Amino acid sequence: MRHRPLIFLYCLALAFAGSAGAANAPAADEEGALVAVLHGDGGVTEKDAACVRLQRIGTARAVPVLQALLANPELSHAARFALESLPTPDAGRALVAALETTTGAERLGVIGSLTVRRETAAVPALVRLLASRVRSAAPDDRALAVAAANALGGYGEAGALAALELHWPAAPEPVRGAIVDALLRRAQTLLDCGESTGAVRLAGAIARAESAWPRRVAAFALLLRGSGARATELLAEALSGPAGPEQAAALQVLPELGGREVAEVLGRVLPELPAPRQDAVLGGWIQRAEPPGRAAVRPLLESESLPLRLTAVRALGRSGAAEDAERLVDFAAEPGLLQTAARAALLELRAPGVAARLRSMLLEARVAVRVEAARALGQRGERDAVPDLIALGAGEVAEVRTAAWRAVALAAGEEHVEAMLAAVSRAVESSRREAAGRAVAFTFERLQPADTSAAVQAWVRLAGQGAPAVRMALLPAGGVLAGPRVREVLRAAMTDTHPGVRGAAIRAAAGGHVTGLLSELLRLAIDPAETEYEGLATAACVRWVTQDGRGGAASRRLEVWRALAAAPLRLYQKRLLLQGLATGRTAEELELAERFLADAECWNEAVAAVAGIAGRLPRSVPVVQLLQWLQGCALDPDLRRTVEAAIRTQESRSAAAG
Amino acid sequence: MVAVPSIVSAATLGLNGRVPPSERIAMGFIGVGGQGGGHLFGGAWTYIAGGFLGRADVQVLAVCDVRTLRREDAVRRVNEHYKAHTGAASQRGCAGYVDFRHVLDRDDLDAVLIATPAHWHATMAVMAAAAGKDIYCEKPTAVTIQESQAVRAAVRRHARVYQAGTQQRSEYGGKFRLACELVRSGRLGRLREVYCHRDGGAIAWPRRPAGPGKPVPRDLDWDLYLGPAPLIPYDGNAGAHRFDVGELNWGQHHSDIIQWALAADDTGPVEAWVEDGRSCLRYANGAVVHGRPHPDEPVGNDGGACFVGSGGRLAVDRNRLVADPVSLVREPLRPDEVHLPRNQGHADNFLHCVRTRQRPICDADVAHRSATALLLGGVAKQLQRRVRWDPTAELFPDDAEAGRLLGIAKRAPWRT
To answer: Which ipTM value was assigned to this complex?
Structure first.
């Protein structure tokens, strides 16, 4: 009993193993103390904990006492927990010896541990065990026979294999199943060791003797893996033959069989197969290191089977040539599953000349074809096609124009920006101007050109001094850039006399990346006359100083809050402000939020903001009383939970501080 | 005679989506709690609209759970569904089982979905493979590296189709795939660090409590719930993750995506250690995976990660894909970049592979490696020190202490 405190210490340490590094380093003669616990008259709980610890630190010294527990129904598992992992031969010997001294579940457990350790010395005893139980109808005997067979499958000893083969033919189920599993394991091990002859012999025997489909599949799979050059022939036979385990195994193994010969076989048999099997074979072929050639794939594109066409389209993406682009665009032009697959394939097609083929399709009569060709060129980033796409963007069909500008946005380089801007200038309808303007904006966002680049300079000229309609189309692009020239253009436009220009600039400044316009946005937010933009500007101010983390120093943040709080805000503006304040972490922000507790319109938001800030404040700021008052007032359950969480946080801080 | 999932599809037969019974994949569901029930019936949180039950190409024939009420309720719902949709007379009924071995004994089942408590997953997967079933297995796919190796070996040995429930490779609008494609295509330059919101995990059998414990509820088979775990008195906790240590539950989602992004599906980390209480991994290419969020990046918590390279950083989770600079993700994936396999959904990918015998996107090899990455972190956390790992030999070189944590003894008769 004198070891009890020590054991409790171990338990505690192990329970917090993640953080208790000290538990890993054995104390002086810790093992001796644990062994003493196991020898002693303590309870199962203590002995169990001692075994757990011995798994980590035990040596040969602990083996005898652990061995003695193997026959104990209450502690056998705990003893194995240690013995199974101990890196000493003594542990293995103890488990082998226990085969003779244990019964029932304890013996099954010992066999399980021997299987893990692969103790070769156990083979004779396991062989005897299998022989004595293999034909018994008693459930306990069958369980032992199954366990013995399972264990023997892990041994390379000739005796183990011989015993399995000897008892296999006459063994009843489930022992027979366990023996087959063990033989398959042995065959796989032989194969992994390069002894394919033995593996193939075993696999062949199983395939001949077993009638159950899954066992035959497993055997044929092994046969194929181990048959070397002959595998090609077997593969061809299986794939061309009737549905059966051979075929299932062939399909399963197909991706892993290497060699040009296999590809030749697949190319040969594929055209002769029914469509569903073609689909399965082609799908497996795609998973091989070398994908199917286009000669094998192209005919399948015309199949009546949709799944097969889908697989063929996927395959063509990996191995197609330039001329296949047309067929893929045809598929992409029809809505449905094929469209998705064909679009993906068009992105993967790497053969030279694909871009030229796609560009030629931009002149096709069919609208859907032009749309898909433009889409593919854009997605592929085909820069050489951008001039053609810009020209297409000026065409008559709205669908094609949209696709063309989207493609331009994805493929254009900085060198194309001037032509895009020119297209904006030339456009006679607002929808066309806007489409081109959106492409400029996306291109800028994608490329992030330098403020001094020719592309940005061209934009500055046109967005700053162009006709109002052109400026309205181009100003949104300024919002995605962050340079000083762009900022100046936006700042000037925010006070432009043309309402459309002014609105475009404000929207760009409020929604974009450009920095340095917070003061302008704040002025808009607090000006009651700015009914159209005050909400947008308020949201932008809140976003700038909270989520984006770009609002500068805490003092600037507070300045914004104070300016907003002092203004005659509308309800939705107040709510935006309180959402922002709720992320605060200073007493000043708390004070601002508290002011809104007097405002019935936004009381809930004010409570949430106060609770949010209070939860983050240091203990030195006394807030618990305020929170408790709010807790009593809050009727909304979610709101009350928020307040309670803040109280808990503050209380735990107080407790931690002592 | 075992039912044979035909490789003939309904669409080929021109049945307008109706699938004759002989063409349906017959499935058994083992574990129908939150996760398994979601797979079976669908639901707001699950990614399978309508669940497997709602699919025309699946016939649910068996439901297994150690909780009687849950099991019986699921059986009733399955049978009512089929009765309402197809007429009871034309359907084989769905049966309930408390012991999953009876499900595996059924010759007329093609596949099982395992969504039990985590400590059961690998044991059941190995037994299901030996019984000739194809397997969809929830994560974690194994709770020790030894178990994980056994699952991989059994699936290969029995030529089974196996899909791990790490559905992020297939779902969520392709965000994870795109993130991995961008990382593998070198958009971030040289990949230096990965911030993984969840770190390593492990399993720990419970300490045996003193005393007789509480009475076992009448609707629970406590022994079968415990399975490979020690036979302890009932203590009121029959949760799915009661034996987990660390991030065993969610961690494999994260490690799976990191393995994919690092093109490490046939290898793994070479080192694991603990940093500020969280496990870290290092891969052979020098990339370090920190088991904690990036300090400046909120995206990644929901199954994702933040990848940091010499040219920027990219973060992904189930809801968002963001990059700094943003241009890293604005540029579409080009033909000369890495394109990873896509499918029409994780469950669909599994069922398609059951029919065609192809390899699912998260097959047993992939699952083994992502589980190993997760569990190596768990070993480092248990030892509170650095461990080296040989991903080829799959052992801790010259480290017998770490070697002790490769497996955990199971209660008889369970084994992998």
So the answer is: 0.92
